[in-house]
Design a protein that fits this description.
This protein is α/β, with parallel strands linked by helices. About 40% of the residues lie in helices and about 25% in strands. The protein contains 7 helices and 10 strands. The strands form 3 sheets. A 6-stranded mixed beta sheet has the order 5-4-3-6-7-8, sandwiched between helices. Strands 1-2 form a two-stranded antiparallel sheet. The chain is globular.
């Protein structure tokens, strides 16, 4: 596993973004782990987060694209932090763009904020985590409506590796439905491999008991 992935796993735990215990998800599923990207709240955290996204985007899609699109609302700071990190790490200028929940009818009008998207643009979409793919359902037509645009892929921070609406993972469903690749900085398999019986932030996060709970969860909701 790449060093930046190991660091990112520790960073999620340290920032209390990735937690282990008993959680009820929006889907109604009872999960032994929960990720909340809203817990990244400081400048230092956002700077680091942008760097991890930048490295993962570089590894999966390269940097030969024009716009990084972050769906409102959590995608807005992600797109800003990551375009800055791409510039700092690789010296490449990428434009950022996000959507508004409601179109603005005065001043900087329209549904988009940041850079406009135009014919010929190559776009990478950035999100925190995708469980059902619902946000892409909303985002995809907005991007397509801007012109002849190529979507190179989606990058999320964590692949939960559980079923979406059918028998495949949400990221696999997105790839099949929309025709562009979907990747994550890390997968839950990598998180489990790295944290199992290994001290992190001074304690073992995934011990035998927690591993048993995670295994049971994936037995019920995991991708076969």
């Amino acid at each position: 596993m790449e060093r930046y992935k190991q660091e990112f796993i520790e960073f999620m735990v340290e920032s209390q973004v990735l937690k282990f215990g008993e959680f009820t998800l929006k889907s109604g599923r009872k999960s032994p782990f929960f990720m909340n990207a809203g817990a990244y709240v400081t400048g230092g955290q956002l700077k680091k987060l942008g760097e991890y996204y930048a490295k993962a985007i570089h590894d999966n899609y390269g940097l030969d694209f024009d716009v990084l699109f972050g769906p409102a609302y959590k995608g807005i700071p992600l797109s800003v932090a990551t375009t800055m990190a791409i510039h700092d790490l690789y010296g490449v200028e990428i434009r950022y763009c996000s959507n508004r929940k409601e179109a603005k009818d005065h001043g900087d009008t329209g549904i988009l904020l940041g850079s406009k998207i135009k014919d010929g643009d190559r776009v990478v979409i950035i999100e925190d985590v995708t469980t059902s793919g619902k946000s892409i359902e909303e985002t995809f037509p907005i991007i397509q409506a801007q012109g002849d645009v190529q979507i190179k892929g989606l990058m999320v921070s964590l692949n939960r590796m559980e079923r979406g609406k059918g028998t495949k993972s949400a990221l696999e469903e997105i790839q099949e439905t929309y025709g562009f690749p979907a990747n994550a900085i890390v997968t839950m398999a990598e998180v489990i491999e790295y944290l199992y019986n290994r001290p992190c932030q001074g304690k073992v996060i995934i011990d035998d008991e927690m591993k048993k709970a995670i295994d049971a969860y994936y037995e019920e909701y995991g991708v076969k």
